[in-house]
């Protein structure tokens, strides 16, 4: 029995999200469908992060255990060949909305979700009045000019180990603790009308990144003071935080399994 | 009666093309639907270029004549508001796959297609083995490394006034003449795994840009000699030219109505 860890990228636009749901197209469902062909048996995978509908991934992880004959390192090539030929005949779209970037054998007790010690998300904001059809599914468009410096100041307040209940969407499952550690954040400069927000943490509450970004946008538009963030966090009150930024700007960028990789990534963001 | 010239950008992924077709979503159909609301009467437009399914536009042009009360310069803002709110409820996609970038009043005899004296197309090639779900609808992915210098040398041979019958797809309507003038071409360097081809001409045969690009890719892969291009063109034989590159890499970039604008754009590409 091999235990395999996959690295997966996908454009989430046309998925109901990562997780399988009846009668809907999910990223997990598509990966399982293709792996079942590649491994010649029904395959079920455990993904690290249940990304929502419209949310993208540069580096989702998932693991599965099975006995199969194809060499593990050939899985990406063979699977991507199937993904690339799987274009729906009803659509003019190019195929290949998912690709497996890597497959590696891991110890039998390894689990893609439970063994993850941190994740990095990226959120892209298009700050332009002029509509851009080519970025509509990949950015959050904000028409009014954002004060990026104020947003950066506000973002610095989310670093640390805190109770982030104020950034948790209603409707998520009730968690024992809403305390999380944010290791590092970075808000880039406006480039090609785009502002990129990056965040690394040990875990994230439901919609947490999108609510943080919505709050930062409120700051960038002058609706909130950047130094109100500590108060908002202390309040644990979702009503005091900002709006929930839309899913299409959000990317699961990386999942960390080792302390060193996590530390290096967090350090790299401080440069 | 006002005669109005529009500048339109669209992501062609989900359209059957520019031109209206029964029971299908077209860019023309969407623009007419929204303008009919904005102008409070049925509007029909004349587009400059009948882009194919999957082909994109940065600067399609179209004109229409009507009497309407909204100030012409407000058309883009109002129309884009409707485009942006028109997301299908069946889809998770962000709305706004079309936007009107400009609307200007022109003399009554002006016609967006018949008065165009030239066009610029851009074609994007993703030269990478690694699949990229986010560019699949916006580039032609070629896995093997391209010899961009050889392609550039080949591209230089298409400049001039020539019979380009070899670059005309079968199935296009029979034309009186297949002579066209290509004013300028440019093939950029590989950047972020992308190679950009730009071409300005007085007119283009059916699938001409895509067949030129397919021929250049054949050159880049070593299947054709860059200096075979003059022979291929002279032959007037479609079989001797290369394959037809797929639609999703192609963008109608600009339409020219004045000699000066055309000359400036062609000169700018030589820099």
Outline the structure in words.
Two copies of one chain form a homodimer. Chain A has two domains: 2-106, Alpha-Beta Plaits; 118-261, 2-Layer Sandwich (Alpha-Beta Plaits). The longest helix of chain A has 13 residues, at 208-220. Mean pLDDT of chain A is 93; it is low at 88-92. Chain A is of the alpha+beta class. In chain A, α1 packs across α2 and α3 (148-156) crosses α4 (208-220). Chain A has six helices and ten strands. Chains A and B meet through α2 and β4 of A and α2 and β4 of B.
Main attributes?
homodimer, 271 residues, alpha+beta, Alpha-Beta Plaits, 2 domains, 6 helices, globular
Summarize the structure.
The structure is a homodimer of 271-residue chains. Chain A has 271 residues and is an alpha+beta fold. Chain A has helices spanning 27-38, 75-84, 148-156, 208-220, 229-235, 259-270; strands at 2-10, 46-47, 56-66, 98-106, 118-127, 140-142, 160-163, 179-187, 194-201, 250-256.
